[in-house]
Fold this sequence. Notes:
Layout: H1 2-23, E1 37-43, H2 47-64, E2 67-73, H3 77-87, E3 93-94, H4 98-106, H5 115-118, H6 129-132, E4 136-137, E5 140-141, H7 157-162, H8 172-182
Parallel strand pairs: 1-2, 1-3
Antiparallel strand pairs: 4-5
Amino acid sequence: MRKLFIAVNVLVAMLMIGAVTLVGRNGASAAPSYAGSVSFGTWSSNPTEQAGQKKLVQAFENKYHINVNFQVLNGDYSTVLKARLTAGTAPDVFYLNSTDAQSFIRTGALANLDFLAKDKSFGFSEFYNSLQFGFKWKGHTYAMAKDYSPLALWYNKTLFAKAGISKPPTTWAQITADACKLTDKAN
């Protein structure tokens, strides 16, 4: 039974990850059609992120004809997820913070995804190794990084003033422009 559970989770993970990859690529060939349903769990987030998640789910359902039960796990996400894994009611596919990944990996809650590295169409090599580090154990990959962003930005007001920058950047374009202004080409 456990092997079947793992096999189903690997298939579901592959399909969800494939949907993310295929939705973003133009000119992808027609996807095969499957039957059934899966559950996708996420933490409570802001309306913009949830709208994006629902759009992804809708695109996946339309492409693969698989019903997705979208679940928002409220409360202490990690604790709720662990409790649901223990009870056998966890979503088939779920978000997982890299800081919690090792405890999930070591208890066998996550399936090995090394097969994705062999599938050139997945684009495994396009993921930053530093982002993937938290999702690996003993050289094997158990999850894929969804995204990244700065949670905080420290800056030196004196250096900013010397470079003619009046305030901290708020977009990636501004960060790039400010970095160029702050770069000391002599060094």
